[in-house]
Amino acid sequence: MRFLRRHPVALALALAVLVSALVPLPELVDAATGSPVGDAQLTRPFWYVVGAPLSDTLDALTFLSLDRAWWFLGSWIVVLVLVAAVRPGSRWRRGARVLIGLLLPVAFAAAAVLLPRPVPRLVTTLGGVTVLDFHSHTRASHDGRHGWTPEDLARWHRRQGFQGAYVTDHNIPFDQNVPDAVIPLLPGVEWSVYRQHIITLGAVDSFDLSPYSRDTPGMVRLFAALHTQGALAIASLPEYWRNHWDDLDAFVAGGVDGFEIVTCAPKALGFPSNDRRQVVDLARRQDLLVTGASDNHGWGMVTCVWNISQQGAHGFADNQVVARPIALVQGDRPAWSAAYSQLWLMLRGLTWPERVSWLTWIALIAIYRGQPKRKGQVGGIGILARELGRSTLSA
Ligand SMILES: [Zn+2]
After folding, report:
1. Which pTM was predicted?
2. 287 CA from centroid of ligand 1 (Å)
3. Which tens digits make up the pLDDT trace of 50-62?
4. How many angstroms does the Cα of residue 170 sit away from the middle of ligand 1?
5. Distance of CA 295 from the midpoint of ligand 1 (Å)
6. What does the domain layout of the chain look like in residue ranges?
């Protein structure tokens, strides 16, 4: 009991890990229907599960929309700095804690973007399908990570279970044979035209974009121009949602081949479920493709979405968009609540092996921190082992 009184934070966290299991989120959902996916699972590497508190937190940070990311960062800095300032201790000690409170959330955000780590991998039991990404970038894009080669991109995809990926750099058609790529890299491009980005699937030549960059009627003529080159045109998020929400019928009339319904870029992750449903209904009525896009630019280790795709996917039923539910649901939560709602969604999505890992880490850290510190005593595994022995004896 004394242990519990001394460690309220550990106790609250352990309770949250357990209580969140009563309202679990499915591992993967079909983004078009919202239902759990039966034919595909995520496998998590051993070290991902061993380090689950870190793995899950960094994943959850990667799946924040831009607004929510700012709120998350700001709120945690304020909370940690305030707690550090009011806790007793010498002035130096409090100063050091305030500094840690300032830097810790920033360090986590940087780790989510840059730290190499084990990642979940999608596996499907379905035959005759390919797990694809329809939208990703290399260093050739103006905003691609420096040094991010097509080979790096292919490795990033394969680690997560992709079997093929379209390379869609900004306004630079990709059509290369990359012999060292670990999965096939498919030809594509992302054109920037009038207040809209258009993902093009298939090999095309560069051409003058100015006729498509003046107004909406001009922009939608791009689709027919791409068809004459044998390519497909997919409307990208967040642009059609932010800039062309009332023009979607014009997109369809102009011959658009499909719409992204999940895009993992922070700017696009705010896309609300209601709007997603409307686009899915439109695509279903018109038999258009719906796609998921990692929109990877070389930053971030995990995707929030995969496509389970039939050969030569062309219509609504040919491609299943499979997403991490946290990435979809978080866009419906108020931005100001990100500091706790993102963590709660993360906990609801844990598998049981991850929950066991969380509880073990919480117990180990609480026991370690509960050690009275004596002069000259070195911390570490020795103390931990002694205390574990004592807890077992007194239990
Ligand atoms: Zn992009």
Report:
1. 0.91
2. 24
3. 999 999 999 999 9
4. 7
5. 5
6. 1-24+349-395, 121-332
